[in-house]
Each structure stands twice: as C-alpha cells, then as structure tokens.
Design brief:
Blueprint (H helix, E strand, L loop, with lengths): L6 E6 L8 H15 L5 E3 L14 H8 L6 H13 L2 E3 L3 E4 L5 E8 L5 E6 L18 E4 L3 E7 L6 H9 L4 E6 L6 H15 L2 E6 L10 E3 L5 E4 L5 E6 L4 H9 L18 E3 L4 E3 L1 H4 L7
Parallel strand pairs: 1-2, 2-3, 8-9, 9-10
Antiparallel strand pairs: 1-13, 4-5, 5-6, 7-8, 10-11, 11-12, 14-15
Helix pairs in contact: 1-3
Length: 292
C-alpha cells in the first residue's frame, strides 16, 4: 500500500536570471532541507529560476535563460536532488527545444538524480506569454507514494488538462503558478473544483510578491482545503497527503455518494463531443485509473 507523501510547496519570489540563480537556488534548497527534514518532495513556483526585474525585457530574459534540459542547469539540478536525496520540482524553466523554440517546462528530479519527467505548458497565457505550447499530458510515479501529474499556472483553467491527468491515474496534481494578478481568487476556486470533479489532490504553489500574490494551497479529493498560505514573502506550505485517499474517493464516492468515474450504465453508447470532433467512450472512461 502507498504511504503518505511529505510535501513542501515553496512559496517564494523568483530568482533573477541575471544573478547567480543556480547557486542561490542550491543554497535555498539546502536550507529548506535542513529546516524541513521530513519533506520528501519540494515544489517551487512557475519560472522560479528565470525571473526578471521590472526594468528588464521579459522576452530578452526568456531567450537568455533558455537551455536544453540536459544542459548545465539540468546537470546542476539533478546533482542537487541526488545530493539531498529528495524529489525536486524546481518550478518551470525556459527550455530550448530541439526545434529551436522556447518552452515553459517543468522538470522533475528523483532522489537518485534522474530526471523522471518534463512537462511543457500546454496553455501559455496568450497574448502575454510567447513560449511555444506543449502537446502532451505528463505524470510520474513517486515510488511508494502514488502518481503525480503536472500542470503550469493557466493550464488549471482548462478542465481537459486535469481530467486527462486524473484519467492517467494521477493521485496528486502539482500546479506550478506565477500569478501576480487579482484572478488568484478565481484560481483558488478552480483548484477546489478540479479536485472535486476529478477526485484528485490538488497542490497549487504560487510565487510570492512581487512575482505573485502567494495564497498557495493543498486541496483533498473531496474539495476540502488541507493547507494554505497568505501572501507571505517566503513560506513553505507543508502537508502529508495520503495519496491512496484519491483512490478511495473514486471507489466509494465523494462524501461516500458521488462517483464521477462511474457515470455510465452498462451498454451506454459513446457520447459525441462536437467541440472536439471526438467522443466519450464509456469503455475508456475509467480505463486509465488504477484500482485501490
């Protein structure tokens, strides 16, 4: 049976790319590992390592900060995860893809230093963001704990993203955020809604001022807020979710009643979805979900 996952959402301001952001980040993670020794997975906000100052051109910073995932930055991050024996999600970074385009990408490093996942933001916040869009949903397994899915900021506004992650067996969705605007209020509602309608844990970590408004949150599969922060300049939102709880809710229903992954009666014909020129096939609806 899976065991609970000690989680740390690091609500903090972005590091400026022009500075020694990698050295500062390594010091930051080492300090957090000392002060929060029980945490097994640290997650940072969107573009934490690629910040820009108010007088800098974001586009220029993006181009300067972009690297291949196996470049010097990736080598350092992998070594840091291995050194500390932690699961590390360093926020998203600017990735230079093989096609020459720049993506907003969240890499994940295992305690042995392997990069076990990388997720490219599918929904850049147009027209304000100019990174190329990703084209696939990404999950990874935290051995002994459960399955984790990735989304980046604006992705959470599109129900198709969290639904597909849940369908792929995700127990916890990490949503890495950099929201400095007033709609963080709506994002907190969306986090709870995504948790409820998909029966997954949601962990949304936002940047601290001035890069974001904070208000990071962990929500359980029935929509209850387990942990949350205000707008502190740096705080680690800690929680120890039992990811097997997501599977129990899917099996027994929200509040022991509502089973959103079992809505179709036997023999139900596929439901056409004109918006997508596709369909919901009842035979596939639950097929990706692991059993308890």
């Amino acid at each position: 049976m899976p065991t609970p996952l000690p989680l740390g959402l690091v609500q903090t301001a972005a590091l400026h790319h022009a500075d020694d952001s990698l050295g500062l980040f390594a010091d930051q993670v080492r300090r957090l590992a000392r002060t929060h020794p029980a945490v097994r997975l640290f997650a940072f906000p969107e573009l934490h390592l690629c910040g820009h100052r108010p007088d800098e051109d974001p586009e220029r910073v993006m181009r300067a900060a972009a690297q291949e995932l196996d470049g010097p930055r990736g080598t350092m991050l992998a070594g840091l995860a291995r050194e500390l024996g932690l699961w590390l999600v360093p926020g998203s970074v600017y990735e230079r893809g093989d096609d020459g385009r720049v993506y907003n990408t969240a890499p994940v490093y295992a305690p042995d230093g392997r990069r076990v996942a990388e997720y490219r933001k599918i929904f850049p916040w147009h027209p304000y963001e100019t990174t190329a869009a990703g084209d696939r949903f990404v999950v990874f397994d935290v051995e002994g704990h459960g399955r984790v899915g990735l989304s980046i900021c604006y992705d959470a506004w599109f129900p198709e993203v969290t639904r597909h992650l849940a369908w792929q067996g995700t127990d916890l969705v990490l949503n890495l955020v950099r929201t400095p605007t007033v709609d963080r209020t709506q994002e907190l509602v969306i986090a709870r809604a995504n948790a409820i309608v998909n029966q997954v844990f949601m962990a949304s970590v936002n940047a601290a001022p001035p890069d974001g408004t904070g208000r990071s949150v962990v929500v359980d599969p029935e929509g209850r807020t387990r942990a949350e922060s205000g707008s502190e300049p740096e705080i680690v939102v800690t929680d120890v979710p039992d990811l097997a709880g997501a599977r129990r809710v899917r099996e027994h229903g929200t509040a022991g009643l509502t089973r959103v992954w079992d809505p179709f009666e036997h023999g139900r014909q596929p439901l056409e979805l004109p918006l997508y020129e596709g369909r919901i096939d009842p035979a596939r609806w639950r097929s990706g979900l692991p059993r308890r």
